[in-house]
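S.,

As promised, the 6-phosphogluconic acid run. Input:
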Amino acid sequence: MPDIRIYPTAALAARAIAGQIVDLCDDAINARGRFTLALSGGSTPEQLYRLLATDEFASRIDWENVHLFWGDERCVPPSHADSNYHTARMALIDHVPVTLSHVHRIHGELPPELAAVQYEQDLRAFFGRREGASGARFDLVLLGMGDDGHTASLFPGGEELAITNRWVVASHPTSVQHARVTLTPTALNEAQRAFFFVSGESKAPALARAVVPPASEDDMLPVHYIQPVSGAARWYIDAAAARVYTAEQVAKAES
Ligand code: 6PG
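Predicted complex:
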């Protein structure tokens, strides 16, 4: 069963995630000398990145041993307002002493397929080609969810969902403005931990489906493909996004 944490507001959910990142970072650096964190894109995590940049949290993170990655990127230049790298740079990277060579961005300015091949090469070089390694063993992957249940840049009906022999692919969803580069479920599911951060009323219908097992393969949302081999993903959601889910759970409990 998924691990679901509901908070009154997105700000409180962000604080809970930030506290977890401090702890996971400490554990990873103590155990392996580094913390590998894959950031999510979109607007929801921006408040989390800003919080991590505050002295309250930044002072508790050993930034010299943190490596930042992305779960996906829009195929735009790194200075473009729609770039997930740009969002994280403005909210976090420019405000903390992370080593710039430890910031492993997806080169969205390249043709999508080339950017995907290059990022996969970067990941395989960084994580090594361990025998049988099916994905990148990030210590933590942060993920969001769209109103349609997409995550990273894995969209409903996308062929990317079924690709198992690649860690990174280009995707060309018709529902969004830009072509994308995304980690595949195979790569994402190798992560030690995966946290979803979902907020807002518009996510409530998809969330109510996302947090229960799909009734059939046709009922699967992209988020259902995120099944980390190391254990269930954890969902940090605000009350607005949980509206439908909690109502259904309350009704079921009362029936
Ligand atoms: C992206 C993200 C994407 C995002 C969802 C939610 O590049 O857009 O990786 O998966 O997490 O679309 O986006 P919001 O947080 O903006 O609602």
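Helices lie at 10-32, 46-52, 55-58, 84-91, 112-127, 185-188, 204-210, 243-254. The first helix runs from residue 10 to 32.

- D.
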